[in-house]
Amino acid sequence: MVMCVQIKCFHEIITIGYNVYHSYDLPWFRTLSWYFLLCVNYFFYGETVTDYFFTLVQREEPLRILSKYHRFISFALYLTGFCMFVLSLVKKHYRLQFYMFGWTHVTLLIVVTQSHLIIHNLFEGMIWFIVPISCVICNDIMAYMFGFFFGRTPLIKLSPKKTWEGFIGGFFATVLFGLLLSYVMSGYRCFTCPVEFNNDTNSFTVDCEPSELFQLQEYNIPLVLQSVVGWKTVRMYPFQIHSIALSTFASLIGPFGGFFASGFKRAFKIKDFANTIPGHGGIMDRFDCQYLMATFVNVYIASFIRGPNPSKLIQQFLTLRPDQQLHIFNTLKAHLVDKGVLGGSEDA
């Protein structure tokens, strides 16, 4: 699904450049644009498969070879496209061809790179995919509702219909929605468990012991709020606290993705990116905020959630030569003995 959305968004933006710059006579322009899309996807998805399913890759000889030389193959593919572009340069179209070359690469950066981050979020657990997307949708709806009924003060010139009342009302509604949705989803392993490859069943699984993020814990309510709510403690999932950060970003920063898209459309005097969805424009019109949100979620997971992964370390350890494994074993053993975790050599 993510791949289909990515391809359609790429097509919409490339088509705008094609029409705006009247690139009808440029040789190989569309062919090279789609070729670069293929190259970048090959690189990103290859990196993802190697990173998350290392054991599977090592078991299959063709995959193992492709994984070993993956970056070299990716670079060779890109160089082929680069050389094709240079060979396609025509004297009367130099400037226009370089415009479109830059247009294609910026589109790849905005669309493909960020959709790749969505895939990473998915592998961490469906909850990291569904909650952020739902928060953006909720904020869009609630900002419209608050703006429709209470809106008086314009927010930004790029979007004249947006109001401060809608912006603030959407924020509070989205935070509340994020807390409720997170509470419901945190209780189901199918949403909280990451995708892993099971060697015993030779299949992909989404089953695990829930981490501390998804186990109910008791929190003390600040004294200032105790007199208001009448409680001293509250039981909630730690993920709900993180959901506040996600919903805050979705409601305060996420809309700027929409403002950016509005400015882009105004710059090229178009109403929508396409007419794929009747009355709503193109796919990119609906996903302008989602890509920015996906990038934030990926950065947030890497900064505050993800820690060292023992299973990945073990998988890589098992692929080493016996002498390398023995060296790591002795080093680790000596380290644990020094820390007092293991006894001396007699006990070991």
UniProtKB/TrEMBL annotation:
InterPro entries: PC_trans, PC_Trfase_euk. Its EC number is 2.7.7.41. The keyword Lipid metabolism applies. Pathway: Phospholipid metabolism; CDP-diacylglycerol biosynthesis; CDP-diacylglycerol from sn-glycerol 3-phosphate: step 3/3; Lipid metabolism. It catalyses: 1-hexadecanoyl-2-(5Z,8Z,11Z,14Z-eicosatetraenoyl)-sn-glycero-3-phosphate + CTP + H(+) = 1-hexadecanoyl-2-(5Z,8Z,11Z,14Z-eicosatetraenoyl)-sn-glycero-3-cytidine-5'-diphosphate + diphosphate; 1,2-di-(9Z-octadecenoyl)-sn-glycero-3-phosphate + CTP + H(+) = 1,2-di-(9Z-octadecenoyl)-sn-glycero-3-cytidine-5'-diphosphate + diphosphate; 1-octadecanoyl-2-(9Z-octadecenoyl)-sn-glycero-3-phosphate + CTP + H(+) = 1-octadecanoyl-2-(9Z-octadecenoyl)-sn-glycero-3-cytidine-5'-diphosphate + diphosphate; 1-octadecanoyl-2-(9Z,12Z-octadecadienoyl)-sn-glycero-3-phosphate + CTP + H(+) = 1-octadecanoyl-2-(9Z,12Z-octadecadienoyl)-sn-glycero-3-cytidine-5'-diphosphate + diphosphate. GO terms for molecular function: phosphatidate cytidylyltransferase activity. It is an enzyme of class 2 (transferase). Keywords: Lipid biosynthesis, Lipid metabolism, Membrane, Nucleotidyltransferase, Phospholipid biosynthesis, Phospholipid metabolism, Transferase, Transmembrane, Transmembrane helix. GO terms for cellular component: endoplasmic reticulum membrane. Its main location: membrane. Pfam families: CTP_transf_1. It is a multi-pass membrane protein. The chain crosses the membrane at residues 28-45, 72-90, 97-119, 125-151, 163-185, 239-261. One of its GO terms (biological process) is CDP-diacylglycerol biosynthetic process. It is found in: Membrane. PANTHER family: PHOSPHATIDATE CYTIDYLYLTRANSFERASE, PHOSPHATIDATE CYTIDYLYLTRANSFERASE 2. Belongs to the CDS family. This is Phosphatidate cytidylyltransferase. It comes from Pavo cristatus (Indian peafowl). The lineage of its organism: Eukaryota, Metazoa, Chordata, Craniata, Vertebrata.
